[in-house]
Amino acid sequence: MTTTATIKVTAAKTRISPDLFGIFFEDLNYAADGGLYAELIQNRSFEYQATEQPTWNSLSFWEFTERGGAKGMWAVSDSSPVHPNNPHCVQVRSSKTGDGVGLMNPGFDGIPVKSGETYDVSFFARQNYMNQAWAADSGLEGRPMPVVVRLESLDGTVLAEAPLQIAGREWSRFAATLVPNRTDPKARFVLLLKANGMIALDEISLFPRSTFRDRRNGLRSDLAQTVADLKPRFIRFPGGCLAHGDGVSNFYRWKDTIGPIEQRKGQRNIWGYHQSVGLGYYEYFQYCEDIGAKPLPVVPAGVSCQNSDHTPGLGQQCVPIADMPAYIQDLLDLVEWANGPVTSKWGAKRAEAGHPLPFGLEYLGVGNEDHITSGFQERFKMIFDAFKAQHPEITVIGTVGPNHSGSDYDAGWAFGRKLGVPIVDEHYYVAPDWFWDNLNFYDRYKRGTGEVYLGEYAAHDAGRRSTLRAALAEAAYMTALERNGDVVRLASYAPLLARRGHTQWTPDLIYFDNTTICLTPSYFVQKLFGQNAGDEYLQTSIETETSKVLAASTVRDSKSGDTIVKRVSRNDAPVRTTIDFSTLGIKAGPATCTVLAGDPNADNSFGKAPTIVPTTTTLSLEPKYELDLSPHSLTVIRVAPNP
After folding, report:
1. Domains and their CATH numbers in the chain
2. Where are the beta strands (DSSP E) in 241-320?
3. Are 245 and 251 in contact (CB under 8 A)?
4. Average pLDDT for residues 362-390, to the nearest whole number?
5. Are 25 and 31 in contact (CB under 8 A)?
């Protein structure tokens, strides 16, 4: 049975934040190493440890190989490292040449290579004789070590190789290019010594030449483009719980993530694996610039994550008050690094990395769903006051805990209003029905007492699957965010990325493996809202005999002049809607209509053809237009201004 509804739109306008819809990136589910970051070697700097995974050590994901009767040995060393932040290297010795002694690495579930494409190999090496007398007696002293770098199939078939000569006792960087002669989704990297002797190796890297925007030390192009297609107005990074870590010693410290990659300081990830920080602050800011999104870094508020289960009973740790001035200076230095002139200390470091112009930082998140303790409040206030005094141009975003209600939420809002914090960060993961039942959640907020960043949200359906039902609940709620765009400044779904077979959290927006990307129904909802955002909300009302099955918003993009109509239905039958544009002065004319619809239980499972994808047609609109909304659907109509 068809339901009917009348949707009226008036010319009464409310401002919408131009930054409303963005994305939240956290190195969770192998989203960075093995994901967005294009590095193809796993454990490239020999820094994996048992504190990350009980079975891991510095040689994890590396294998020693002796080819064609060759003999040798390998060992981890912490003597004379490339850099103190990168303390381990590997020593490889060949005592019988054969066809070579060396190392193999399978990458992240295999190394995907394509025929005819270029891959860049680099590593640091030095000749390293533990016994110089032996080296001299053997005639090896001063003789370069020939090595071969190679891409192989698992059966040993050589796909590409290049020779190099290692000479000298000081660390030097060596590089080569490899062009495979065939495609292989599960290749491996091999480095072989081709003469007797010993060398030390570190920071062994393999990158596709073709990264996103061809950036050096860049991002996986297809995955980065998939994210860019969301048209996010901002990117929040690097977390999440990752930012304030598992104890004060596990804070994500931005200064450890900039500069040459061999000088960066990787560490244990709160989600149970290693983060190389090859994808560091410079790369985050560069990516934001590349896709036209504002950077929104999140830093600890001087306290650690209280919810970590990696160290049971640890709870919230606080930076000692005596250490807070130095910690705050680190945060102030971040602004200078991002925005300062090249003549400043930290602006010069940004310029040295290749970006002399400022990045234009506007927002800074301080804290992440923290427990609102006295320790948190004291340290947050110190940070907030310092920024208010020294960088009033930076909008500091506070936090009100991990839920949409409760003691932290109430205390966080009260504390934020007392200090005059301009925006606070709300988080909540709830069932689809909650979103439908709370479409007026922000209608109730008092204006002028602080704005909202809805930093993490998602509908969690039964089984934590990414269903269409969940996506439509999110879409309905996003129409309410647009309606309340005068109080909700920013919003981002979470989490963004998940590597198949390596997830610590579900559901996620985008699933991937080495060669495939799986787009969820929620991804398409975010994409449709991101690509059809506006900066003015036009008052929209719904008249229908069936309650809580429809949601709607109408916005206008002042730059293009387009009017964008969004309609969400969770009805089991079609809904015949009459859309009244008569007060907007819209005359008859063409419009595009994009519909996302289908089985509410469908989830675009990995490895199967997606069943929930948007379709676009052209309509010929009248001032009063009848349109049948499909069951369980999001419909977006975009109308150009009258000529």
Report:
1. 3-12+536-639 (2.60.40.1180), 63-208 (2.60.120.260)
2. 267-268, 274-275, 294-299
3. yes
4. 97
5. yes
Question: Sign of the CA dihedral 249, 251, 257, 258?
Answer: negative
Decide if 202 contacts 86 (C-beta within 8 A). Answer: yes
DSSP lists the bridge partners of residue 493 as 23, 457
What sign results for the dihedral spanned by CA atoms 498, 502, 504, 506?
Answer: positive
Task: Spell out the residues 6+ positions from residue 311 whose beta carbon is closer than 8 angstroms to its own.
Answer: 246, 247
Burial environment of residue 508 by CB neighbours within 10 A (0 to 12, 13 to 18, 19 or more): buried
Q: Tell me which residues are annotated as active site.
A: 369
Burial class (CB in 10 A: 0-12, 13-18, 19+), 255: middle
Prior bond of 422 cis (ω within 30°): no
In angstroms, the CA 255 to CA 346 distance is 10
pLDDT score of 50:
95
Please tell me the predicted confidence (pLDDT) of residue 54.
96
198: which strand partners?
93
pLDDT at 315 over 90: no
Tokens matching residue 62 = 């590396």
Instruction: Give the pLDDT confidence score for residue 310 in this predicted structure.
Output: 53
Gap between the Cα atoms of 393 and 361, Å rounded:
9
pLDDT in tens, 495-552: 999 999 999 999 999 999 999 999 999 999 999 999 999 999 999 988 887 778 999 9
Residue type, 619: L
Residue 624 banded pLDDT, cuts 50, 70, 90? confident
Phi and psi, residue 446, nearest 5°: -75, 125
Distance separating the N- and C-terminal Cα atoms of the chain: 39
Beta strand 395-399 pairing with 363-366: parallel
Alpha carbons 169 and 128: distance in angstroms, whole number: 6
Q: Which residues pair with 591 in a beta bridge?
A: 619, 639
What is the Cα–Cα distance from 603 to 609, expressed in whole angstroms? 11
The one-character DSSP state at 476 is H
- Choice between 59 and 462, residue whose per-residue pLDDT is larger: 59
Helix (H, G, I), strand (E, B), or coil: what is residue 376?
A: helix
Does the pLDDT of residue 136 top 60, yes or no?
A: no
Whether the predicted model's global pTM rises above the 0.90 cut: yes
Distance between CA 557 and CA 580 in Å, rounded? 19
